[in-house]
Amino acid sequence: MKFIPSLEWIKNYKKEWLSGDISAGLTVGVMLIPQGMAYSMLAGLPPIYGLYAVTIPLIIYAILFCKY
User: pTM of the entire structure?
Assistant: First the structure.
């Protein structure tokens, strides 16, 4: 629990927060996915690496560092 705060707050998560969280996630995704793909193409890499670079760190952050 100490190293994964999301396990602590997920028990108290309320359903009415879900729509706002989905909206925020979609907003971030709409901005970061094309940006990550463009940066990887500027670096001469395939766009898939840009997708990895923007999604995997965000998922890790949400699990390990977000405190509600």
Answer: 0.66
Answer whether 50's CB lies under 8 Å from 39's CB.
Answer: yes
47, two tokens: 């766009």
Q: How many CB atoms lie within 10 A of CB 54?
A: 20
Residue 16 has pLDDT above 70, yes or no: yes
Over the Cα atoms of the chain, what is R_g?
A: 15
Angle at which helices 18-42 and 47-64 cross, to 10°? 140
For residues 52 and 19, give the distance between their C-alpha atoms in angstroms, rounded to a whole number. Answer: 25
Nearest-angstrom CA–CA distance, 5 and 17: 18
